């Protein structure tokens, strides 16, 4: 589910920051970017929590990605696959490894342009936080939660624009977004629905063969998913504190 994907994305982003030995604040930014990036694959579903997280912006993006996914399925599906009526929408194009790479490359390119880094940070924080807050109805009216999302995302986005010393290199932004999207795909691989990990190559006569973990589980009220979500949220800050405090090499 959305919150679980965001949690694993935070862990993945923090891990990338720690591995390249960024300073503590940059590692935190990497974690926040990863949390939003881990939700990008589910933007192929307009009705999903992430698809509705930021209103018309994410809804329109979801519709376009859904159309692109369906078109890719029609053009690349094998004869065996085309015999069965299947739309090729959710869990198809955006849930492939090439799509994860595309998300990363796009983020890296945007980060190269003036104010681009701030835009990427704003978008990823807004996407991640917006999805999480939308699922917590106890926090008040939806408009209030959206407003809080934009304020927090705006703060981090602006900090990247007005504090040059804290700017992340464009390649690191791309790597973090790729890692976040990839952990989403791997997370869905753990479920019964599976993901097309072989695309665009053919496996057993199918280009969109859905790979599933041998110990796949159902999403929703699953103790496995709960353990993954809670474990990621606990280990991420521990990792940032214990290993993320190492100063970058001179």
TrEMBL record:
The chain crosses the membrane at residues 93-113, 119-136, 148-164, 170-190, 227-245. The keyword rRNA-binding does not apply. InterPro entries: YdjM-like. GO terms for molecular function: hydrolase activity. Keywords: Hydrolase, Membrane, Transmembrane, Transmembrane helix. The keyword NADP does not apply. It comes from the Bacteria. Pfam families: YdjM. This is Metal-dependent hydrolase. It comes from Nocardiopsis tropica.
């Amino acid at each position: 589910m959305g919150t679980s994907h965001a949690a694993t994305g935070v862990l993945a982003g923090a891990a990338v920051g720690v591995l390249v030995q960024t300073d503590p604040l940059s590692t935190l930014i990497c974690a926040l970017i990863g949390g939003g990036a881990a939700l990008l694959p589910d933007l192929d579903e307009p009705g999903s929590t992430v698809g509705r997280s930021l209103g018309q912006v994410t809804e329109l993006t979801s519709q376009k990605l859904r159309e692109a996914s369906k078109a890719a399925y029609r053009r690349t599906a094998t004869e065996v696959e085309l015999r069965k009526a299947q739309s090729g929408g959710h869990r198809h194009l955006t849930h492939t490894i090439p799509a994860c790479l595309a998300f990363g490359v796009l983020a890296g390119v945007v980060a190269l342009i003036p104010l681009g880094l701030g835009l990427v940070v704003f978008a990823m924080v807004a996407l991640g936080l917006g999805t999480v807050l939308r699922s917590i109805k106890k926090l008040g009216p939806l408009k209030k939660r959206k407003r809080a999302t934009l304020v927090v995302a705006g703060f981090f986005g602006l900090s990247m624009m007005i504090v040059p010393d804290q700017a992340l290199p464009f390649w690191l932004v791309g790597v973090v977004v790729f890692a976040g999207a990839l952990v989403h795909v791997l997370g869905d691989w753990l479920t019964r629905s599976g993901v097309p990990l072989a695309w665009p190559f053919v496996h057993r006569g199918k280009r969109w063969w859905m790979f599933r973990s041998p110990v796949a589980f159902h999403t929703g009220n699953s103790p496995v998913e709960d353990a993954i979500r809670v474990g990621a949220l606990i280990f991420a800050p521990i990792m940032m504190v214990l290993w993320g405090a190492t100063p970058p090499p001179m």
